[in-house]
Design goal:
224 residues; alpha+beta; Jelly Rolls; Arc Repressor Mutant, subunit A; 2 domains; 24% strand; globular
């Protein structure tokens, strides 16, 4: 499950960059930045010269459609990275990053420093690009789901992905310490909070999952 995947365990970019390697750049605890819920870390069109790793809390990445509708692209937690498109040549932000919880703390790292670290360490460079590739493929799957699948199928795909990435296997069950609210899930799969609640209850009634405010338990992962 999740603790066997490269981006959560042996290839934890936060551990590489904000615990060990960033010492080469003279970064100390005072370098970390803390935001309260609803505070913006960066806006669209801001200069893209920094990437961030999350030390605690949650960050959501969003944008707005031409009609003014909010489109949530990702919700990220501790150890995950954002702002990485600057490594691919983005000079102005194309999205908004916002703290989703109080006391969300991030480690900002200058793109020039990251590139220098990548030049010195081929293994680290490979891990960064692999992580970016994973994020791009994940976004492509999400777009395909929005176009081709109904809400129930999108929710089941979301739960399966959550189980694979973050789940802990306990016997025949997979347990995810569940940090998404129903509203968060609705934003990510393109539906309403009420529809998410109703569909989750249906899946529980069918014996496929169980959930509470803190976790979700997948009883039959093969059904997803």
């Amino acid at each position: 499950m999740g603790n066997q995947l490269w981006y959560f365990d042996d290839v934890n970019l936060y551990n590489v960059m904000c615990t060990h390697k960033v010492q080469d750049f003279g970064i100390n605890e005072g370098h970390f930045r803390t935001y309260q819920k609803g505070e913006t870390i960066y806006f669209t069109d801001d200069s893209a010269n920094t990437m961030y790793l999350i030390a605690s809390g949650k960050v959501r990445i969003l944008n707005y459609s031409e009609g003014g509708d909010e489109v949530v692209k990702a919700i990220l937690g501790r150890g995950e990275m954002f702002g990485e498109l600057a490594l691919l040549g983005e000079d102005k932000r194309s999205e908004i990053a916002e703290a989703l919880e109080n006391n969300t703390t991030v480690c900002p790292v200058n793109i020039d420093d990251v590139q220098e670290l990548m030049r010195k360490n081929r293994d680290f460079s490979f891990k960064v690009y692999k992580w970016i590739g994973f994020r791009i493929r994940k976004m492509e799957r999400r777009i395909d789901n929005l176009v081709f699948k109904d809400v129930r199928s999108r929710l089941m795909d979301f739960i399966r992905e959550l189980a694979i990435e973050k789940g802990e296997k306990k016997g025949d069950l997979v347990v995810v310490e569940h940090f998404y609210t129903h509203k968060n899930i609705a934003n990510l799969i393109g539906t309403s909070r009420q529809t998410v609640t109703t569909t989750l209850n249906e899946l529980r009634d069918e014996g496929l999952i169980d959930f509470d405010r803190k976790s979700i338990t997948i009883k039959q992962l093969g059904a997803f």
